[in-house]
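Page header: ASSEMBLY MODEL / two components / 229 residues total.
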Amino acid sequence: AQKITQTQPGMFVQEKEAVTLDCTYDTSDPSYGLFWYKQPSSGEMIFLIYQGSYDQQNATEGRYSLNFQKARKSANLVISASQLGDSAMYFCAMREVNTGGFKTIFGAGTRLFVKA
Amino acid sequence: NAGVTQTPKFQVLKTGQSMTLQCAQDMNHNSMYWYRQDPGMGLRLIYYSASEGTTDKGEVPNGYNVSRLNKREFSLRLESAAPSQTSVYFCASSQGAGDYGYTFGSGTRLTVV
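Prediction written out in full:
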């Protein structure tokens, strides 16, 4: 069963607007971590943000925030004030602490296009 | 300021040939990983090494072997390359299990013809 689902293959956003990239996950492990990574056209993978399953507050890193809704098993990435440099592929990922150990699994990704 | 260094960046192999992808990190991380990226499938874990001296299978280990040569280096070997192994390969490292994020190398684009 697919454990990380990103249903938006591609998204468009106007520069300076906010955008939400969707991610749902499936796990029975009560302890897990959720991640977002960015892959620009140059190909490197860049870590953006992390949310632990027991964290009470949503994680934020600069213009990135993770909208964590535990009951719905969703971990959406919100990018505020989009910039042209935000155009990239974005991957949601999860690590199951008890059942997955050191394995982090990735979703298929969402390609974001920022329009000037 | 190298981070994670992968070599080579590009490689073309003929079916049945063997090769080793090299990965080295200079961040004193304990854990290292090999992923492959195929279009529409995200990244899939091939093998990982939680610490020096240990290696474990990931989601797609068939056709690959790994060696954790020391704390810095983690190599991936294809013994008999197949067209299905055409992919972009990423090495990554982390302190612990990666809850502070992975640091990735720049990738190796491998084509098997």
